[in-house]
Amino acid sequence: MHFGNRVQFELYRRFKKAKYPVRYEELVDKARDVLEEGPFYYVEGGAGAEDTGRANRRAFQKWQIVPRMLRDVSKRDFRVQLFGQTYDYPLLLAPVGVQSIIHPEGELGAAKAAAELCVPFVASTASTHSLEKIARVMGDAPRWFQLYWSRDQDVAASLLERAERAGYAAIVVTLDTPMMAWRENDINQGYLPFLLGEGIGNYLSDPAFRAKLSKPPETDLEEAILYWAQIFGNESLTWDDLPFLRKHTRLPILLKGILHPGDAELALKHGIDGIIVSNHGGRQVDGAIAVLDALGPVVDAVKGRIPVLMDSGIRRGADMIKALALGASAVLVGRPYVFGLALGGQDGVRHVVRNLLADFNLTMALAGFSSLADLNRSILVKADQLFL
Ligand SMILES: Cc1cc2nc3c(=O)[nH]c(=O)nc-3n(C[C@H](O)[C@H](O)[C@H](O)COP(=O)(O)O)c2cc1C
Ligand SMILES: CCCCCCC(=O)C(=O)O
Fold first, then answer.
1. What is the number of the ligand 1 atom nearest to the C-alpha of 94?
2. 345 CB less than 6 Å from ligand 2?
3. How far is CA 36 from CA 33, 101, 189, 258, 339, in A?
4. How many angstroms separate the CA atoms of 324 and 345, rounded?
5. How many domains does the structure of the chain reveal?
6. Is residue 381 part of a domain?
7. Which of 80, 94, 136, 350 counts the most CB atoms within 10 A of its CB?
8. Residues in the active site (predicted)?
């Protein structure tokens, strides 16, 4: 996809009568109008006082890009190589569970939009639709699978094996959510979609999970939900458990939720293939460090030995540039595409992701950068530092 004046003018013409807002903040407002309170606040909200959610955004504002001029940016190539595969842009759709509470298409709509744009889709363990069904609607398009490492090791092993069989190219193991955080909105609303049977599609279709039930979940959903609640996470896991993952998959393994450089070193020591610096979009540890502040120290610890990705708070092209300049190989985006889904299913997700790519492409060009290799810390200044 090439973005230049011609494409941009076309965008302006179309957006005159577009049904989706361009600005993230307006997207959230419109999603609030169309969603019921429970699902809206489940997606939009964070843990505790939501200080970390706000800190994520503030951390982006602390850095400023210093554009360069007269650098022939007419030919731009923002391809990135990750685990032997080449992607057009350093952007992935973050794993987001229970998308059926947002739109009837759920993950299938988001996955199809990702496939259309060739943006890798990270399917969540907590998806409403099974990982096989998501894979089917994506054809050959790139996809990764996110694992919630169940207390039931048979289920964890089965999910890993199913993902490999269904053509997923990497496994993202989320470490920061062995249990749900203190989420005040959801507690106030008494809203937890899983207890309504949402977001457990991967378990209901899993032979290892089904084998533990006394009756098929089609005849007794309540038993299945109760068993899911018992085995969803495992807070007793340690670094010594990581060989289990290797035993059950040949795919590259990334750890999601790393924030401390010491944990990045441990990941390397244990032969992990990649890291996603993330605080789960401020949804788990309220008061945790902003992701952009955590990124630099993790990148320094890793020293280029494995890819370091990041998410939490990416809203615009300039945010992507700052994260990449601070050493991320690629970034993931969560809530923006979910609000796109709320407004228009697949079409809404396509709109949001395409805009983010267009914004990134144009901002890169205007700042004088025609490839990802142009990005490093020297292109940024801290907002409170004297320049030159
Ligand atoms: C509604 C919702 C559900 C999520 N579900 C998952 C999940 O199933 N697995 C996971 O690893 N992360 C999950 N996340 C976290 C995202 O993968 C990602 O870390 C976060 O949304 C990034 O922040 P952003 O929303 O500010 O872009 C979820 C986030 C949201 C908003
Ligand atoms: C019982 C916890 C399930 C959480 C799965 C979805 C998720 O990650 C989120 O942030 O919400």
1. 17
2. no
3. 8, 9, 11, 33, 13
4. 29
5. 1
6. no
7. 94
8. 280 (proton acceptor)
Q: Is the pTM of this model over 0.95?
A: yes
- Residue 112 resides in a domain: yes
CA of 315 to the centre of ligand 1 (A): 14
Ligand 2 pocket test, candidate residues 41, 42, 177, 189, most atoms within 8 A of CB: 177
Q: What is the CATH number of the domain that holds 178?
A: 3.20.20.70
Q: How many angstroms does the Cα of residue 333 sit away from the middle of ligand 1?
A: 8
Ligand 1 centroid distance, CA of 70 (Å): 39
The per-residue pLDDT for range 78-100, each reduced to its tens digit, is: 999 999 999 999 999 999 999 99
The length of the chain is 388
Catalytic residue among 103, 129, 248, 280: 280
Q: Is residue 71 part of a domain?
A: no
Contact between 56 and 313 (Cβ < 8 Å): yes
Residues 155 and 144: their CA atoms lie apart, in Å, by 18
Which residue's CA is the closest to the ligand 2 atom numbered 9? 97
Instruction: Say whether 280 is catalytic.
Output: yes
Quote the ipTM score: 0.99
Ligand 1 close to Cβ of residue 335 (< 6 A): yes
pLDDT (tens digit, 9 = 90+) per residue, 254-263?
999 999 999 9
Residue 386 falls within a domain, yes or no?
A: no
